[in-house]
Amino acid sequence: MDKAEAAMKKVVLDCQVGQYDKYRETLEAAITKRKDDLKKIKELLDAQEVKAVGTAGARCEKAMSNGTMRPRKALGRETVCDETLCCGASRVWMASGTTADAAW
User: Fold this and answer.
1) What is the pLDDT at residue 84?
2) Which of 1, 28, 71, 76 is deepest in the core (most CB within 10 A)?
3) In the prediction, which pLDDT does 50 show?
4) What was the pLDDT predicted at 57?
5) What pLDDT is stored for residue 13 in this prediction?
6) Who's near 25: CB < 8 A, 6+ residues apart?
7) 44 vs 48: CA distance, rounded Å
8) Is 9 strand, coil or helix?
């Protein structure tokens, strides 16, 4: 009985070690892939031309209110975007509804 229990413990331990090794290999592969993906993303972002806030072609984001319900000043400017640009960033079109402004 003692030999059988010892053999069973060895088999269980070997199985646990084997499964942990497989887990670590999978984890290491995922970590390496993530690092590579983040490096590619950084390269793509660095390659993009940076546009001034509030100009055409720049990131369009609704400015956070400073509590007075008026747009936050951006880089010393009273308004966030150039006058000819709309501030549609706060609205995301959804495909539901039958009218033009049915779902924002």
Assistant:
1) 72
2) 71
3) 79
4) 73
5) 96
6) none
7) 7
8) helix
The C-alpha atoms of residue 89 and residue 104 are separated, in whole angstroms, by 11
pLDDT confidence of residue 28: 97
Q: Positive or negative CA dihedral for 16, 19, 25, 28?
A: negative
Tokens 């490096």 locate to 39
Read off the pTM: 0.47
**Residues with pLDDT less than 50, the chain:** 90
Give Cα separations from 65 to 43, 82, 104 (angstroms).
33, 18, 20
Element (DSSP H or E) covering residue 90: none
Burial of residue 80, with CB atoms counted within 10 A of its CB: 0-12 exposed, 13-18 middle, 19 or more buried: buried
User: Beta-carbon neighbour count of residue 81 at 10 Å?
Assistant: 21
Q: Which two tokens stand for residue 61?
A: 């984001």
The whole-angstrom separation of Cα 83 and Cα 79 is: 8
In the numeric block, which tokens belong to residue 5? 């229990």
E strand segments, 5-81: none
**For the chain, how many residues are written?**
104
Bridge partners, 71 (sequence order) = 65
